[in-house]
Amino acid sequence: MANGKFIIGNWKMNGDFAHKDLVKSIMVATEGKLSDNLKVGICPPFPYISYFKDVLEQSGVNLGAQDCHFNEKGAHTGDVSISMLKEVGCDIVIVGHSERRANHFENDEIVCAKANAVLSKGLIPIICVGETDEQRKSGKAIEIVLGQVSNSCPKESPNIVIAYEPVWAIGTGNVASPQDIEEMHLAIRERLISMFGAAGEGVQILYGGSVNAANAKEILAIANVDGALVGGASLKASDFATIIESA
Ligand code: PGA
């Protein structure tokens, strides 16, 4: 049975209060269309989450954060806990994005601790994995990504979403080929089934990395691609609407 599609906008360190217009246009684009077959979410920077929660009201659009700490509270200057994110209305949290793995030295162990913390509060972790250009060129892409899946995902619960994002495809305009996407998503699917049994079939696997209005339809039609994690194109109302439409 095919999983529904999940389209998530990762705003990264972009956006301001004026992006209310973008949020409103996402609400228009999704009105009457959201169901188990189509979910749409946005992940703005921390300071705006609460504000956009009010804008989204009962729209059914998921609201998320781009990171979190794995501890509940304490001396962690600059960090944000899952309880805080839950209180301001988040239901999804991105963990292990390659920009955090690279710039904040987050390894699989930290990503797994974050994903566990997200699950423990009843939110859904969007767990990012992906190989670098060097790793792909050396023929190690599948091995690297499957290692990340095994070590970054909590073992106990399949209530997770995976985002496969080749590092070299993020923000570059270079999309992985349909063959490479299909091969990787199948490998991830098989790994999830070996971890979670039949429940691994139901884990959504998103593709991310230069998804845009022009290529979304082709990417979303590939086997085992259950949605997209969209960076740059999620900040343009018409492009994001087209991507949602393509799902
Ligand atoms: P991009 O970013 O769509 O701008 O390539 C995707 C991501 O980093 O999640």
Summed up:
40% of the residues lie in helices and 16% in strands. With 247 residues, it is of the alpha/beta class.
End-to-end gap:
16 Å
Helix content: 25-40%
- Counting helices, strands and paired strands, the structural category is alpha/beta
Number of helices: 10
Query: Count the strands?
Result: 8
In the sheet with the most strands, the strands line up as 1-2-3-4-5-6-7-8
Strand residues, percent? 15-25%
Shape: globular
The parts where pLDDT drops under 50 for at least 5 residues are none
* Radius of gyration of CA atoms, rounded to a whole number: 17 Å
Taken in chain order, the helices and strands follow as EHEHEHEHHEHHEHEHEH
For the largest beta-sheet, the strand count, sense and barrel status come to: 8 strands, parallel, barrel
- Which small-molecule species are bound to the chains here? 2-phosphoglycolic acid
Task: Give the integer mean of the pLDDT values.
Answer: 97
Walk me through the structure.
- The two termini are 16 Å apart.
- Helix 1 packs parallel to helix 10 and helix 7 (141-152) packs parallel to helix 8.
- The protein has 247 residues and is α/β, with parallel strands linked by helices.
- An eight-stranded parallel barrel has the order 1-2-3-4-5-6-7-8, surrounded by five helices.
- Helices cover 40% and strands 16% of the residues.
- Helix 3 links the parallel strand 3 (62-65) and strand 4 (92-95).
- It is globular, with a radius of gyration of 17 Å.
- The structure holds 2-phosphoglycolic acid (PGA).
- 2-phosphoglycolic acid binds at residues 10, 165, 170-171, 208-211, 229-233.
